[in-house]
Amino acid sequence: MAFINVKDCLTDPRQLIKLILLVVCVSITIYQLSECVNKIISPPITSHYRFRYNQSIKYPAITVCRRPSFKTFLFPQYGIRASTLDLAANNLFEHFPFNTTTLEHFLNATTYDFKEVVPLYGYNETGMGENLWFRKIFFTKRGLCHTMIPKEMSQNFAIGGGFWLYLKHTAKDKTKDTNGLSTTGFEIHIHDEFEVIKEEDGSNTGFVYVETGEDLHVTLTVQSYSQVSTKQQPCVKDPTYGKSRCEQKCVHNFAARKVGCRVPWLRDLDQDYPLCSDYVSINEITNAMTEEFSSRALSECNCQGRCNNTLYKYQIVHRRDVDVIQGSSSTIAIYFDSNLVTELIDVISYDWNIFLADIGGSLGFLLGLSVIGFVNVIEEIVKLIFRMREKTEDFPELELEGKGEGKEGESLKSVMEFVANCDMYEEKHGEKITKY
Questions:
Q1: Does 83 map to a domain?
Q2: pLDDT tens sequence for the chain (436 residues)
Q3: Does some domain include residue 10?
Q4: Which CA distances in Å does 280 have to 89, 139, 263, 272?
């Protein structure tokens, strides 16, 4: 392997060109190696989009909320106006009889329990069975909502393998508000079991509205997304974690800590607070849950997204008015009509194997080095260092005298050595020369 003689670079153009090419190649190699290091520190992510057929499928959770949400005709018994639609209004509980009753008793009496809303139901070809979990949630606007969570997966991709609900209503006629929206019916929220419904309409959930006296068929499709946790976009790998639940817990705990008591629509509290017993405390909790204070609480909690997300989309394929005999009650069927699942998967597209391959390719292609050649380069560098060190130790005075003289200094030195040799020869053999 040929090496560049640095001393000849100023006199030999070929050596100079070799030096320039070597510097350029080394610079490019260093740049490529730095890019490889950056990729190994922050690896690029590649997304794969694919379809998969499942033999069985997991159904989402279903949350049912009734409209109207409260039995407002009972409100005057508790010192509240009968026209009230939101319990978060300021000073609403100013005349509430805290001495004789509690907020929990008030809500249980003025909202609709599960049997009043869903007297009949079925899931996975089983009617009124034990294959569902049930959970109830209080809201300031929606009143009492009921969540049904499947205990088992379904293998029937038809109407019989999903949910069927008979929804009971007491309204005689369909009514609408000033915006033309129905005020008598049912909200059907379709969501992942580890996500929760917030006070805002439709956040984190699919939303189906069933008016009184209607029959609906709703088909579902599922999309799953698997994200890779990175420093730029971290996520939580726990399959039981939900971002909306984390945010809800954060805001509710913030409000309870600030006031020192709780109300029934606060959930997932870290400690047991006493029930608020005056309207001033309830107003403070309501103000603490406003957008301004909620954003401050969320900034402290830093609720991250899930690494594995499941999104359920719905489509209404059948909608009609029910028979006169059924009256104002409604029915809804929610089911998968196909076992096709859409998946979007993020994977790390750079690892140590690719890193080592890139290093070998950069060195071999740009510098033309093999492993043996690279070892020879190191050997020559080490030898050069030792040679320079030995010369410096043996002739320190010559090194100092010779600096800056160049070729003229070397010529003068040769002449002086020649003269000195001549003088020595004359002294030694002078007598013999005179004799002859």
A1: yes
A2: 445 555 566 566 666 666 777 777 778 778 888 888 888 888 888 888 899 898 999 999 999 999 999 999 999 999 999 988 899 888 899 999 999 999 999 999 999 999 999 999 999 999 888 899 999 999 999 999 999 999 999 999 999 999 999 999 988 878 887 777 788 999 999 999 999 988 765 445 568 999 999 999 999 999 999 998 888 889 999 999 999 999 999 999 999 999 999 999 999 999 999 999 999 999 999 988 887 788 888 888 889 999 999 999 999 999 998 876 677 899 999 999 999 999 999 888 887 888 888 777 776 766 565 555 666 667 777 777 877 877 666 655 544 444 444 444 455 555 456 555 555 555 555 544 444 4
A3: no
A4: 12, 19, 12, 20
Distance (Å, whole) CA 206 – CA 62: 10
Residues 6+ apart with CB under 8 A from 15: 4, 5, 6, 8, 9
In the 8-state DSSP scheme, what is residue 279? H
Respond yes or no on whether the N-terminal peptide bond of residue 68 is cis (omega within 30° of 0).
yes
DSSP state of 303: P
Tokens of 302: 């830093």
Integer CA distances (angstroms), 387 to 1, 19, 382, 401, in order: 20, 22, 9, 19
Number of structural domains the chain divides into? 1
Cβ atoms of 335 and 158 closer than 8 Å: yes
CATH number at residue 338: 2.60.470.10
234 is written with which tokens?
Answer: 């971290």
> What range does the domain containing 304 cover?
52-348
Residue 109 lies in a domain: yes
Tokens matching residue 39 = 């990729």
Tell which residue, 160, 149, 156, has the closest CA to residue 54. 156
Domain membership of residue 99 (yes or no) is yes
From residue 112, give the alpha-carbon distance in Å to each of 66, 91, 178: 8, 24, 25
- Looking up tokens 């005689």, which residue turns up? 172
User: What is the Cα–Cα distance from 192 to 245, expressed in whole angstroms?
Assistant: 11
